[in-house]
Amino acid sequence: MDLLQNTWQSDILGVERPSFFMKIVAYTTQGCFYCDQLKELFKRANLEYESVPVITEEERAEFRKKFPRAGGYPYVLVDDKHVGGLVETAKMLLEKGLVSSKKSERS
Asked: Pick from 31, 20, 14, 13: which is nearest to 95 by CA?
């Protein structure tokens, strides 16, 4: 399935959600401003996601091994495809019309 396919489906509760977001995984760290902003962005977009905390040095080493091109945290995958950090994720959601860049439209 194309990551940016623009179709909608109803979930089990009848809520319309974009079908191109099957599984969102966000790798985050504690006390990270950008990670907190990402969580707020997903909330504004009404998207469910899995947050994977990277806390210990062992977890950080495993993260770097698994995602050597990641610049840091947060790091987002959609359907196992690399999206990137906060900026890349925000751009994608803006392009799909799931969030607005206008402050007056923010909830």
From this structure: 20
Please check whether residue 58 lies inside any domain of the structure.
yes
Q: At what angle do helices 33-44 and 86-95 cross, to 10 degrees?
A: 20
Say which DSSP state 103 is in.
G
- Selection from 24, 18, 14, 23 nearest residue 6 by Cα: 18
- Which stretches of the chain are DSSP H helices? 33-44, 57-66, 86-95
Q: What is the pLDDT of residues 5-45, one digit of tens each?
A: 445 554 444 555 555 556 899 999 999 999 999 999 999 88
Sheet strands side by side (includes 24-28)? 50-53, 24-28, 75-78, 81-84
- Residue entry with tokens 């977009």: 45
Residue 35, domain member (yes or no)? yes
Range of the domain at 64: 22-99
d(CA 86, CA 2): 21
pTM metric for this prediction: 0.74
